[in-house]
From TrEMBL:
Organism ancestry: Eukaryota, Metazoa, Chordata, Craniata, Vertebrata
Keywords from the UniProt entry: Coiled coil
Pfam families: CENP-P
InterPro entries named among the record's database cross-references: CENP-P
GO terms of biological process kind: CENP-A containing chromatin assembly
One GO cellular component term: chromosome, centromeric region
Regions annotated as coiled coil: 6-33
Protein name: CENPP protein
Top-rank taxon, per record: Eukaryota
């Protein structure tokens, strides 16, 4: 009888080890996929999109074209949220200062990354030159209720100090995935 109990536990342990291996491989695959794009490539794509959008906004478009574009953007946003695990639940934007070549906007984002809630507040300083638009994030403030995860506060402080919002979302996504894996693993032992 006692040997049966040990066999059941050993089978469960093997099953968990296989699941951990599978999840680790899945995570490494995703990390490799996201590593294909450098920060410069992402910024170049964003700038290209901004130029394309500015050119299109000058032309008058019919409402059906606008609806099609909106649906396309919603589809893209949905894909990105599923891919990264970052779900935005609220966004507010307020223009603080606007001059001829300089605009300062205050943004506030709220959302969840897997099971971790977050709030991000920052100011976006846009400076328009004749040929380009440059944007800088200032006054970055990240709020995370991390009672269970004490290591997050040091990470958040470092990100706020450097003002690197892209790194925050990349790291948060990875951290939240591993927290989710950890939670699922511990559920097996309950």
């Amino acid at each position: 009888m006692e040997e049966n109990v040990y066999e059941v536990y050993e089978d469960e342990i093997r099953s968990l080890e296989e699941e951990i291996q599978m999840l680790t491989e899945k995570y490494e695959d995703r990390q490799q996929e996201s590593a294909f794009y450098s920060d410069e490539e992402i910024l170049a794509s964003i700038k290209s999109f901004q130029r394309e959008f500015q050119g299109e906004s000058k032309e008058r478009e019919s409402s059906s074209d606008l609806k099609a574009q909106l649906e396309s953007l919603e589809t893209d946003l949905s894909f990105l949220m599923k891919f990264t695990g970052v779900w935005f639940t609220r966004h507010s934007k307020k223009t603080v200062e606007k001059t001829g070549s300089r605009t300062i906007q205050k943004h506030r984002l709220e959302g969840n990354c897997h099971s971790l809630p977050f709030q991000v507040e920052f100011q976006l300083l846009e400076i328009k030159n004749k040929e380009s638009v440059s944007a800088v994030i200032t006054d970055l403030n990240i709020i995370m209720e991390s009672r269970e995860y004490s290591g997050v506060s040091k990470f958040v402080s470092s990100i706020e100090e450097h003002g690197n919002l892209l790194q925050f979302f990349r790291s948060l996504s990875s951290y939240a995935q591993w927290c989710e894996h950890r939670r699922c693993t511990f559920l097996h032992f309950k």
